[in-house]
Design goal:
Its cofactor is Mg(2+). Helix content is 35%, strand content 22%. With 575 residues, it is α+β, with helices and mostly antiparallel strands. The strands form five sheets. It has an eight-stranded mixed beta sheet with strand order 8-12-13-20-19-18-17-16, sandwiched between helices.
């Protein structure tokens, strides 16, 4: 890396790195550092009458040097603890370089250090570690954005969402509570997996690359499989493969994995997301609602210690049972319009009368879905099962046992968003084929989310699939609910981001065209001249002086251009 691309702090850290090496200290040692304690455990188990020696390691997050004694704050994977360091304790012999040079001068905030010492309580009552040995474990070359306070005002806060998501590794270090969110996410997944395993269901893996994007209505990502010389789809759901396993004789199967939908991004949607899908033989929708209620109540209690969670001042209770409401009743309740018995044209006319953005490509099911999304979805704050979806909205769902034209399906709404989607699964292969054909008609009308016929899945159904309940739960949205977060990026370690914006720069070749040597280009950029047009209005002597200042500041051993050479650059830049 060119030194001119670095900040002054980064340059200083690299100089410290070289000085450490010249002293014979490896800034990145390979040997194991055998820790035996964590900061939180030390504080929780401390006893005043105990003479305990510990070995800890972590980042140095602050340092207060007071002559021959100093305090440092060490952050490990659990929390932070104060370390008391004295010159003569860590340097018992004649050589005091470890304290005077290494600790005081060459270490920086963010460096990883290892400490061996005894636990004690300071005069101010703070539990600390009195260091007897200090080891550098890893030198950091970039400064952390540590928040500083002056007169009650915070400076250098690392709170820009785009920057936090892009540099999650920094966000986790400097912002309190971020790591806790992802520990809770792990608890949610671990608890869900335990519930499903204890119920006797088998966790499986199914293909992510699929020849047909099936199992949901969504626009897929397309890639090319070179070895087979064919286009493939990133899966939009795991459903059809999991059902094949039910056909093959599994009693119950589930998968927690990534799905990919080439659609919009907002606070509650990310094209790459985590979903859990479960399929259980010989069960139906009514059993599924009861099972889902109990599972979510148990997960909420595992994460928050109780079956309630507070989000934006609202207490949401996952205490079973949840409300159950047919979708057409929900639409009628919120709009006064009864979709039951209405034709596609009548529903479209009502949507248009409400100013909704609908068109001729949308079938009856899509129009009902748009109505529900526009007027109903956001109103359901407490967990609510929306049931009895029209068949046009549910091409993989069994017909309702007692209500013609409807299906045995529910969506679970919580805090105004869908959390789960579930069916009594369609296992009639003839009915399934007819519904696939209807979906293809929608695709012919221009619906790019309509399903493609999966002939192999139809063949599997013809061998016979038992009555089956199936459910999909969005893990990211579940974590948002359980942790009280409003943006999906807050609960995904590395959400998808737009490419980083780069400052426009003229290339080295373009600078060369006006006579600027390659080694001078970084100097001009450091001085603020990223484009050739930036130097048009400069005076030759003034620009030469700015170049000279960069040479001097960074101690560059380069040939300084003459005023005449600089004038020639400027003249050509104005052509």
């Amino acid at each position: 890396m060119n030194i001119l691309e670095l900040s002054e702090q980064e340059i200083g850290r690299r100089q410290s790195l070289q000085e450490l090496r010249s002293m014979g200290i490896d800034p990145y040692p390979a040997a194991e550092f055998p820790t035996n304690a964590f900061s939180t455990e030390i504080k929780e188990s401390f006893k005043d009458d105990e003479d305990r020696e510990v070995v800890i390691a972590g980042r140095m997050m602050s340092r207060r040097v007071m002559g021959k004694a100093s305090f440092a704050e060490l952050q490990d994977s659990k929390g932070r603890i104060q370390v008391y360091i004295t010159r003569d304790d860590i340097c018992p012999g004649e050589n005091k370089d470890l304290y005077n040079n290494v600790f005081k001068r060459l270490l920086d905030i963010g460096d990883f250090i290892g400490v061996k010492g005894k636990v004690f309580r300071t005069q101010t009552g703070e539990i600390s570690v009195h260091a007897s040995e200090l080891t550098l474990l890893s030198k950091s070359l970039k400064p952390l954005p540590i928040v500083k306070y002056k007169d009650g005002v915070a400076y250098d806060k690392f709170d820009d969402p785009e920057l936090r998501y892009r540099q999650r590794y920094v966000d986790l270090v400097v912002n309190e509570g971020v790591k806790d969110t992802f520990l809770k996410r792990a608890t949610i997944i671990r608890t869900m997996r335990s519930i499903l395993d204890n119920a006797g269901y088998t966790e499986v893996d199914t293909p992510i690359l699929q020849s047909i994007a099936g199992g949901a209505s969504a626009r897929p990502f397309i890639t090319h499989f070179n070895a087979l010389n064919q286009d493939m789809y990133m899966r939009i759901a795991t459903e059809l493969y999991l059902k094949r396993l039910i056909v093959g004789g599994f009693e119950g199967v589930y998968e927690m994995g990534k799905n990919f939908r080439n659609e919009g991004m907002d606070k509650t949607h990310n094209p790459e997301f985590t979903c859990m899908e479960l399929y259980v033989s010989y069960k139906d929708l009514l059993w599924g609602m009861t099972f889902t209620e109990k599972m979510l109540e148990e997960i909420c209690t595992a994460v928050n210690g109780k079956p309630e969670v507070e989000i934006d001042g609202k207490v949401i209770s996952f205490k079973a049972p949840f409300r159950r409401l047919p979708i057409l009743d929900a639409i009628k309740e919120k709009t006064g319009f009864d979709c039951d018995g209405k034709t596609e044209d009548e529903i479209r006319a009502f949507c248009l009368s409400k100013g909704m953005d609908v068109d001729e490509t949308m079938g009856k099911g899509k129009l009902i879905d748009e109505l529900f999304g526009e007027f109903c979805e956001s109103t359901f704050i407490q967990p609510t099962f929306i049931t009895d979806y029209p068949v046009e909205m549910s091409p993989l769902t069994k017909m309702h046992r007692s209500k013609p034209g409807l299906t045995e399906r529910f969506e679970l709404m919580v805090n105004g968003k869908e959390l789960a989607n579930a069916y009594s699964e369609l296992n009639d292969p003839i009915d399934q084929e007819e519904r696939f054909i209807e979906q293809m008609k929608l695709a012919d009308k221009g619906d790019d989310e309509a399903m493609i016929i999966d002939h192999d899945f139809l063949r599997a159904l013809q061998y016979g699939m038992p009555p089956t309940f199936g459910i999909g739960i969005g893990i990211d949205r579940l974590v948002m609910l359980m942790t009280g977060k409003f943006a999906i990026g807050e609960v995904m370690l590395f959400p998808q981001m737009k490419p980083e914006k780069k400052i426009p720069q003229s290339s080295v070749a373009e600078w060369a065209e006006i006579g600027v040597p390659e080694d001078i280009v970084p100097v001009l950029r450091k001085a603020g001249f990223n484009l050739i047009t930036n130097i048009k209005d400069e005076k030759p002597q003034g620009l030469q002086q700015k170049i000279g200042e960069i040479f001097k500041k960074y101690k560059l051993e380069l040939q300084k251009p003459s005023v005449d050479e600089v004038a020639a650059w400027i003249e050509k830049a104005n052509v």
